[in-house]
Amino acid sequence: MEQPPGFIDSRFPNHVCRLRKALYGLKQAPRAWFQRLSNFLLHQGFMCSQADTSLFVFHKGACLMYLLVYVDDIILTGNDEASISRFTASLHKEFAITDLGNLNYFLGLEVTTTSNGLFLSQGKYATDILSRADMLDSKPVSTPLSTSDVFLSTGPPFSEPSYYRSLVGALQYLTITRPDISYAVNQASQFLHAPTTAHFQLVKRILRYVKGTLNLGLRFSKPPNMSTVGYSDADWARCIETRRSTYGYSIFFGGNLVSWSAKKQPTVSRSSCESEYRAMANTASEIIWVTHLLRDLNALPPGRPTLLCDNLSAVFLSQNPVAHKRAKHIDIDYHFVRELVSSGKLHTKFVPTKLQVADIFTKPLARPLFEEFRDQLGVKPPPVSLEGGVIEFKIQIMLTT
């Protein structure tokens, strides 16, 4: 801590104050708080996940407990109620905490327990966005973007760029439980520095779609199998101005969507095969991270994950180690997908375009196909019948520093 103005020691003007206790608001406070909590959890027998440093896992015999930390908010779950009660009691002794009971609301996410799983939604958060945009009474639309909508940098500038950034930033957080708007929000996010009036009109269309689908959310059900499947897709030269491709992926564990993305590739691809191959490499890296996380959770399935792509050339390129003259310019780091395939850690397969779920992350789709892929992603209305119980035993705890 630097010496505050007016209290500088004239004998040692370059000395600094020794920090004995982290005060709220200091730059060191978050690190010091997390270190304090981590030391306590490690002393209690928890292990910090290597895939996600905010996740702590306790595994002793048949007892499993998962603890997820976000600043001073904690989610705790496990399969042994007695162990959870003992740990919660020790947590009470060490910190001033408030036990909020069964998990139902966390960081804007609404959690509803069903008879065979969970339902995650952000209905209240989405309503707040519409209220901020004064669009609670707007007319709903069936898709976030029409098939003819294109984001271009030309046109008259929007008069309130900060308002545009605020709305797009709020929509970005909404994609946590609404992957169906990921592509549209990604396109709108590329023009935050200089939005135009046309851009704002397209953002309003996204909001009109959200207005008509406020009740949608992600469903998670007990999986019939524990397989990991990823879908990878790319739309070659999608961007008219830069000719860079847009790629997307969706990763399912036990039939439940656990990871997805919609992004523009950083470089121009010379062919559709190249853009699809780059997308496969990025998806493969995410699948590897998911497998590491599952291993930390003691839930890693025995079989190898499968990566599905609708481009035969890209699938062949991932399985064939022979260098081709059209692929020799591709960066070496993208070829690690070949090593995964050859070592048996990953299986790549072809999937027809009509079954390519990741297509929803690369381009605007017509309503029938959009709704079909949205349903396959698990974005659905809340279940009709809800139960008050929980799957195992869930506690939400708020810590006050």
What report would you give on this structure?
- The structure is a single chain.
- With 401 residues, this protein is of the alpha+beta class.
- A 6-stranded antiparallel sheet has the order 1-2-3-4-16-5, with helices on one face.
- The protein has helices spanning 29-43, 81-94, 123-132, 161-174, 182-189, 197-212, 272-296, 312-319, 336-342, 367-376; strands at 47-48, 55-60, 63-70, 73-78, 97-99, 105-106, 109-113, 117-121, 217-221, 228-235, 246-253, 256-264, 306-309, 347-350, 379-380, 394-399.
- It has 10 helices and 16 strands.
- Helix 3 (123-132) packs antiparallel against helix 4 and helix 7 packs across helix 8.
- The chain folds into 3 domains: 29-107 and 389-399, no CATH class; 120-212, no CATH class; 226-351, 2-Layer Sandwich (Nucleotidyltransferase, domain 5).
- It is globular, with a radius of gyration of 24 Å.
- The two termini are 20 Å apart.
Secondary structure elements and their pairing?
Elements: H1 29-43, E1 47-48, E2 55-60, E3 63-70, E4 73-78, H2 81-94, E5 97-99, E6 105-106, E7 109-113, E8 117-121, H3 123-132, H4 161-174, H5 182-189, H6 197-212, E9 217-221, E10 228-235, E11 246-253, E12 256-264, H7 272-296, E13 306-309, H8 312-319, H9 336-342, E14 347-350, H10 367-376, E15 379-380, E16 394-399
Parallel strand pairs: 10-13, 13-14
Antiparallel strand pairs: 1-2, 2-3, 3-4, 4-16, 5-16, 6-7, 7-8, 8-9, 9-15, 10-11, 11-12
